[in-house]
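Re: the request from the purification team.
They wanted to know what the chain is likely to look like in 3D before they choose a buffer screen. I agreed to run a prediction and write the result into the notebook, where they can find it.
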Amino acid sequence: MKKIIFGILLLVLVAPIYAQENAAAEAATDQTAQVQDPAERNKMLYSLGFLLGDNLKRQLILDNEDDYKAVSQGMRDSLLNKSAQTDLETYKPQIIAKYQQDAETISQRREAEQKEYLENFSKEKNVKVLDNGAMIKLARKGKGSTPSASSKVTVNYEGKLIDGTKFDSSYDRGEAFTVALNQVVPCWTKALQQMRPGAKATVVCPADTAYGNRPVGMIPPGSVLVFTVELMNIDD
């Protein structure tokens, strides 16, 4: 069982990187020649290390420089095929315990931060709180009729976590997104019915109006999502 848990820990640490695989694969196709250059290869590997570190700190609480040095030394010895300086089997139970304890602490911190974010946003001027808890703040009103809950709409949008991490953007793809409002998360179904063609808004989705406790790509479970949405057209 401990081996299984330890394996899951390693998967959790690297999974967010693989979640970006599709986008990264497209970019990699265009940059293959650059990666062959030693300087570009070093930059790519540095970026890989940075992402691994970023994911590690999302899963574990490392309190000081000595913590960072110890983890870094262990990774360095492993990558260089050196012998471990400790009896790994002895420390695996402690690693698993730390991971479980830190995960609980991090979850509690995230929950408190997200609750505070929702409370603060709800108090901003011109924010409308909808009956399912989703919130919308219009930056531009638009003209015409509002869509129904089953309308097909075309939008441009950008989605972020409350810490500013961008997880999706039609702007980056250079292509607007067309979808029926009964085929999106409940937050969008409700919020876009408040918009008219040409409108632009910030839409804040509590976790239970978005993906709940399911991790989706770069989105951790239980995440509040923040969207900038422009309603381009109502297509039916």
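For the purification team: The two ends are 54 Å apart (CA to CA).
Please add any questions underneath this entry.
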